[in-house]
Write a structure and sequence with these properties.
Layout lengths: L6 E7 L7 E6 L2 E7 L4 E5 L2 E11 L2 E11 L6 E5 L2 E2 L9 E8 L7 E6 L2 E7 L4 E6 L1 E11 L2 E11 L6 E5 L2 E5 L7 E6 L7 E6 L2 E7 L5 E4 L5 E10 L2 E10 L5 E6 L2 E2 L1
Parallel strand pairs: 1-7, 9-15, 17-23
Antiparallel strand pairs: 1-4, 2-3, 2-5, 5-6, 6-8, 9-12, 10-11, 10-13, 13-14, 14-16, 17-20, 18-19, 18-21, 21-22, 22-24
């Protein structure tokens, strides 16, 4: 598959879908939400890709998966998914509640959590991140920067069947002096004045998971001098809240962006 010529792809639920929104997966990776009427816009390499969605509404599970080729073109390529009702409440035997937390002896209080390479928000000491994961092996990782020092930890753990939460602890390992003095960073914060307490974050069309109101925000390395498009979206009480901001970060700098989604 060529990666030299990506194409803008807009993914949306069909207008006749029985549900309004669902979690979107492209090539098995969570890419935020797909909705009716509002496209999820991403950049994909040319070639064959798997598009899937999943939602549970009123105890009913909806799914759809299809494979489609992304071809060369100068205009966006549209992909539509029509959810298919699966019947009753989905089987819970294939998933388990997992609680992820930093160790009590960690030198940092929080960090960005990645599971299977997907940003899942902030992991902290004392307060777990609560997720539902499929049974099987998963890669847990965290990153943080404190006082100019970078901390990381990565491990693979097997999520097994069980009726109680499975706990996973990450102990950050000091990496030495971070490249922050020459690197370029972007910190995105959902401001305390936001009307919604969390939002889905995308940067340059790539889904980065959820961020929550207040706190220290989420930190990302960016390419110096290149324009970065930040989008926050949230569906709440039948309304859509969103905000978009474009920013360019100079080499060696860290820019903090506070955003407040507004009702559309």
């Amino acid at each position: 598959m060529s990666i030299a010529c990506p194409r803008e792809v807009k993914i949306q639920l069909t207008s006749t879908a029985e549900i309004d929104a669902a979690e979107l997966f492209v090539d098995g990776v969570s890419r935020g939400f797909v909705r009716k009427g509002i496209a999820n816009t991403i950049q994909l390499p040319l070639g064959q890709h798997s598009f899937a969605m999943r939602a549970v509404v009123n105890g009913i599970e909806y799914k759809r998966e299809k494979s489609e080729a992304i071809v060369a073109g100068t205009t966006p390529q549209w992909v539509f998914l029509h959810p298919i009702k699966q019947g009753g409440t989905p089987q819970a035997s294939g998933t388990r509640e997992v609680r992820v937390q930093l160790t009590s002896t960690a030198e940092v209080d929080s960090g960005t959590l990645f599971i299977d390479g997907v940003n899942r928000g902030i992991v902290r000491k004392g307060t777990p991140v609560i997720l539902h994961l499929p049974l099987g092996n998963h890669k847990f990782a965290m990153e943080a920067v404190k006082d100019g020092v970078e901390y990381k930890r990565e491990k693979t753990a097997n999520v097994t069947a069980g009726t109680t939460p499975q706990w996973e602890f990450l102990h950050p390992i000091r990496q030495g002096n971070t490249t922050a003095t020459t690197g370029t960073w972007l910190v995105v914060i959902l401001d305390q004045t936001s009307p919604v307490n969390k939002a889905n974050l995308t940067i340059n069309g790539d889904a980065k998971g959820e961020i929550r109101r207040g706190g220290d925000g989420v930190r990302y390395a960016v390419t110096p001098g290149e324009e970065v498009t930040i989008v926050l979206t949230r569906e709440w009480n039948g309304k859509t809240y969103s905000v978009e901001k474009k920013i360019t970060v100079a080499s060696g700098q860290t820019e903090t962006v506070r955003l407040v989604p507004v009702k559309q």
